[in-house]
Amino acid sequence: MSAPLLELAGVHAGYGPFKAVVDVDLTVPAGGAVALLGPNGAGKTTVARVVSGLVRPTAGTVAFDGEVISGLPAHEIARRGVAHAPEGRSVFATLSVEENLALPLRQAHGTARAAELTDQAYAMFPRLGERRAQLAGSLSGGEQRQLSLARVLVDPPRLLVVDELSLGLAPVIIGEVYQRLAEIRRLGTALLLVEQYVEHALGIAESIVVLRAGEVAYAGAPLPTDELSQLFLAAG
Amino acid sequence: MPDVVEYAIRGVPMGCVFALVAIGIVLTYKTSGVLNLAFGAQAYVSAALYYTLRDPDRFGWPMVPAVVVSVLIAAPALGWFLDRALYRHLRTAPPVAKLVVSLGLLVAIPQIVNLDFLLGSQAKLAPPGVASEDPIYVAGINTSANEIVTVVVAVLSVLGLGLLFRRTNLGLQMRAVVESPRMTQLAGVNADRVGSFAWMLSSLFAGLAGVLVAPLFAQLTDLDFFGLLIAALAAAVFARLVSIPMAFAGGIALGVGQALAAGVLPADNVLSTGFRSVLPFAVLFGLLLFWPGLRDHAGGGDPLAGVDPPPPSPGGFVRPRWMTVLNRSLAGAGLVVFVVATLAVFDEFWLRVITQGIILSLIFLSVTVVVGLAGQISLCQAAFAAVGAFATAQLVDKTGMSVLVAMVVGAAVAAALGALIALPALRLSGIYLALATLAFAVMFENVLVPLEAVSGPTRQLKVPRPLLAGIDFANNRAFLLLCTALLALVAGIVLLIRNGTTGRALTAMRSSELGVASLGLSTGRLKVIAFAVSAAIAGFGGGLMATFERQMGRQVYQANFTFFVGLVWVVLVITLGARTVPGAVTGGLSFVLFRQILEKVLGVSATLAGSVSFILFGLGALTYAKHPEGIVEAQTQRFVRLVSRRRAHPPDDAPTAVDPVAPAEARP
Fold it and tell me: What ipTM is given for this predicted complex?
């Protein structure tokens, strides 16, 4: 087995006086897919934010590709190939669809290449092409997810952190979005999936980490759902 | 009518000046989310620097290096500094918090520039223009090279910024940063650098406008720049704070409108001079009332705002019971000691100063009601106080009624006015409401105060001290006791309101207007109540000030109630603690004591003492971002935590739950 792509060691983090995660260890192998599971308020979102640099850990380290990245500003981490689709609305509501795609793509590849990639995205999601001049805030929830995935599909990052992908989406759309995630994986991208709805994540992940009250309650191979629910219900 | 056309064209250069400032305001709002009330002050910095560099007695530089230094170097440097020191830490703060900070800068910056060792103490004639101001004729129209430069610069600015926002990556990045600096970072963009650049760019515009505008006034004073700001705000509101071409059009329309008013209406007519000066305020106020589509935030805020730790709660701090009891008894004891000490120890001078502080504390409680309880930023509290004072003086003068009765009637008049001012509040909230009150405050000073119907005859009206139950309060010590009793009374009323149903509803509205509306309460009614009660308190305090001064008229107005002083009041109370009585009282006392202690005890010159205290009050507002609950309240809470820890009882609100998601989701 090769060296892990992402490695969290003894990470503590929180918000002001709130301690959200305590002593979390987590690894994602290159090209692998890990699901981060746990009940509401277990600290999953915080772990995702620590990985992308939005929240700085108060202790412990985050290493990406063998290099410590904890403490770097978020844009530096993004430039190293970590993409983070945050929970809830993950597009710029006041920018148009086209501008939403152009912002990261131009940063990474320059204007000319970004235009090509944007056209590829429209080919993949014709719906977005039809609405390229529309403000992203006026798209439906599913279309907004398409938009954030489109950007990732045309320019695959090395690691994609997705937070609560299924939140607020119609079941049909969730299925479609997970198909896209499988596509992204085939392009060589490693996945860290944060999910409350276990079944979705288990379909794609080969290992899981369960958080409970900010601590790792289980890490390893996927468990049958009844055992998992035991872990969830034991949450104090 | 060729005359009309000619007048209209003559208004274009001034319109371009309005447009330049308006463009700058829109640019700042678009790229940083700050409605920068200090924009005029920033323009003034560059104008003053340009003036100093050109002044033959100081540096005597030629035009080009002076423009390069004051516009191209100093202005962006100031913007960079403001971003690094302040606004960078406020990127995800609500628009009103940013407004308060800019208000503090608006108060402090001109005072800093005006310090003698920076600008010199002699009267400052306007600096020479960047180009010749000699009249020339272009196509039969009387103009000057300087005016042509202004027009050209304004047009180029609109075109250049249009290109920047539509065509360049940087323009896109600046807009992204305003919506969410965090998400912009996730796109790999250095949000801090983009934000700094945005501030440097908009500050460059402030400098440009300042240097182009300065020669138009007879003298270089910060007040002219404030008037300019109002006109520009009207144009910016016309553009809904987002459209640069519309800001340009609005500025030109305003300039042309003013020129037409001056030209077409008969000269030397009250109507024409009056109309000319009213126009910008009236337009701003009218737009705020009727212009559709004015909303605080188009995008619904930063989806990643929850990444920051939640701010300290402005009102939800639960004190232990012993603390409340201790607090109240200490306050009572302190009051007694204070009064006895004042009566026995201080001489007439300090007696006067302290009485003034007590009266101001009473007036400041009006800020507590409207800003602290209802969460609406009102910038016209001084006007309410002045209305109370004018009404008291005129009632006593014309009808000979008792002063105390006149003060109550004056408070009622102010309350009616307050309810009227709240009408735009039915529709607006946040920064737009603050703007409406600001427009009213400036209009009150420039248009209403000069009218006899408002301020009475030009001489000062005599206002006697009250006579109550056989006690003649002409005695200053007795009067101080009366003021203290009235302060306690009003403070009691404010506390009753705060802890009663209305207060709870107001506090709820402060947190979420939507939430209050969904409980079946009318936010419009609540706002009208808050403004009316607040105006009544201010008006009553104004009347008290009039009887304290034993006279009221334009001089007393100039000394106590100018809109600028009113801005300092609000800034001071918000800084110290807008929700609590101690916040208001500390504010009132420090407003007068600070300056007098500097002057009388430390021997600082009177003007310097005034400047230094205003500078500190203004800069104090910068702490608002970190402590929206106010300095006094923050220190109290620290004290309680310290003591509670010693007593081994954790305070009720100590964070015990581990809930990382809640702060992210709780804030819309």
Answer: 0.91
